[in-house]
Design a protein that fits this description.
Layout lengths: L5 E3 L4 E4 L10 E4 L2 H9 L6 H18 L6 H12 L6 H13 L2 H6 L2 H30 L7 E6 L14 H10 L3 E7 L6 H13 L2 E5 L4 H6 L5 E4 L3 E3 L4 E4 L2 H10 L4 E4 L5 E2 L16 H5 L29 E4 L6 E4 L2 E4 L3 H7 L3
Parallel strand pairs: 4-5, 4-7, 5-6, 7-10, 8-11, 10-13
Antiparallel strand pairs: 1-2, 2-3, 8-9, 9-12, 13-14
Length: 358
């Protein structure tokens, strides 16, 4: 594993601070629940799978840091606080629901504080290990979709090791294509306003020795018209039961452009990305983030924590901005959803239920 975004150290968590990449590689120590929540909210850790894993280790640290056993009501309150840290990504909700199902009130009451810490640690470690295996299986399944030796692939946001427990989803596919002898060139959308593409994807591709060009978010149509793109692959934060998919803002626009240019548009995500309780993408809650991220590059700080750019440097002081973190791509624009269980071509309610075994 080239990049380790998450390290569990038994009594604390180490997270590679993704707001500092590529300027420096620094791990932050996470020692309690609030540290975990802050790391998720402040984008220290990001990517739906990595958020869920961090959240579960946060639950472990909650019990480790308690001086006395919390009541069952306090336990449920803790899970709700975790859930509100990033509401759009479904992996966190599924992990929380799954953990809660292993600790119904009757069972919870029989456990000591030490038992609860051990139980949640085992749950978090299992989720971490499962994610790595699922991503590798997903990438293996995707290989049949790519026949050409030389490939130009456009991707959006960051979907590699940094966004997961290790291998990655969309970037995991690209990594596996290289491993199987394909000559891959990656075109990474810069992904405004947090620049996950120009900062994180480009950095990961350098680590892997994969050819990569950073492009502006508005450049994709030109690249497609020039015949440089063989496929678009993105990750996903939540998939509705009909195949509609929520992902980083700008994904929907890429799907429209790909359709216009007859280019395959693939979504890569594990079955943990599916929310079978919602009928369509219209039910997905879209997180609205602070407009300062768009106006001031407010997340970019120097080694002392001071803002690198002063307000008003890029936008007039007093300007307003819209900053939705995600948008929804309708299933009709998706060529296929790639999962560890198989490939869902032309996704719809029936094909999604089939892959989910429902």
């Amino acid at each position: 594993m080239a990049v380790e975004p998450i390290r569990w150290k038994k009594d604390h968590l180490q997270l590679l601070d993704q707001t500092r990449i590529p300027r420096e590689e620094k791990y932050l120590e996470i020692r309690n629940l609030q540290d975990s929540i802050d790391a998720i909210k402040n984008m220290i850790v990001r990517g739906a799978p990595a958020i869920a894993i961090t959240g579960m280790f946060g639950a472990t640290l909650y019990f480790i840091s308690c001086k006395s056993k919390p009541t069952f009501a306090e336990f449920l309150q803790m899970l709700e606080l975790l859930l509100q840290s990033r509401p759009t990504a479904v992996n966190l909700k599924l992990a929380i629901d799954s953990l809660a199902s292993t600790l119904p009130e009757k069972v919870y009451q029989t456990y000591s504080l030490g038992d609860l810490a051990i139980h949640t640690e085992k749950f978090a470690v299992a989720l971490f290990e499962q994610d790595v295996q699922q991503n590798r299986s997903l990438a293996k399944n995707a290989l049949e979709l790519f026949q050409g030796k030389k490939l130009g692939i456009l991707t959006h946001c960051n979907t590699g090791s940094l966004a997961t427990a290790g291998h990655g989803t969309a970037l995991g596919i690209i990594r596996s294509l290289k491993e199987t002898g394909h000559d891959v060139t990656v075109y990474a959308d810069e992904t405004r306003p947090y620049l996950q593409g120009s900062r994180l994807t480009a950095w990961e591709m350098q680590q892997e020795g994969i050819d990569c060009f950073i492009i502006t978010d508005s450049m994709a149509g030109w690249l497609m018209s020039e015949g440089k793109i063989d496929a678009v692959i993105t990750g996903v934060d939540r998939i509705a039961s009909n195949g509609d998919a929520a992902n980083k803002i700008g994904t929907y626009s890429l799907s429209v452009l790909a359709k216009e240019h007859s280019i395959p548009f693939y979504i890569a995500g594990t079955v943990n990305s599916f929310d079978m309780k919602i009928k369509s993408g219209k039910e997905i809650v879209i997180e609205m983030r602070d407009e300062a991220e768009l106006l001031n590059f407010s997340f970019l700080k120097d080694a002392t924590g001071k803002d690198l750019f002063a307000p008003g440097l890029f936008s007039p002081i007093g300007s307003r901005a819209l900053n939705p973190a995600f948008d929804v791509t309708p299933a009709k624009n998706i060529t296929a959803i790639i999962t560890e269980k198989g490939i869902i071509r032309n996704p719809n309610s029936e094909s999604v239920r089939k892959i989910m075994g429902i």
